[in-house]
TrEMBL record:
Gene3D superfamilies: Glutaredoxin
Source organism per UniProt: Imperialibacter roseus
Superkingdom field: Bacteria
SUPFAM superfamilies associated with the record: Thioredoxin-like
Annotated coiled-coil segments of the chain: none
Residue ranges of domain Glutaredoxin in the record: 7-63
Name the record gives this protein: Glutaredoxin domain-containing protein
Amino acid sequence: MSEKPKLYGADWCPKTSGFRNYLQSEWVDFEFLDIEKDDKAMEEVKAMNGGQVKFPMVVVGDDKMKNPPIEKLRESLKRNKLV
């Protein structure tokens, strides 16, 4: 099995909540990183986006996706044998 997917976002963000709900509904074990409470997570998001703060970000294996369509996320989860 691949490394746990990571969801970078904020508690107040509806899109972040949507991804969290989707991953939970698919029984995917993932790590949620709140960029407003975790300085390292904030720096990782900036590094993935050329110094800009853009979220939600979902990282699955080598796939780094900013606010991906659910179908693209599902394909990445399948490719990484997580669903």
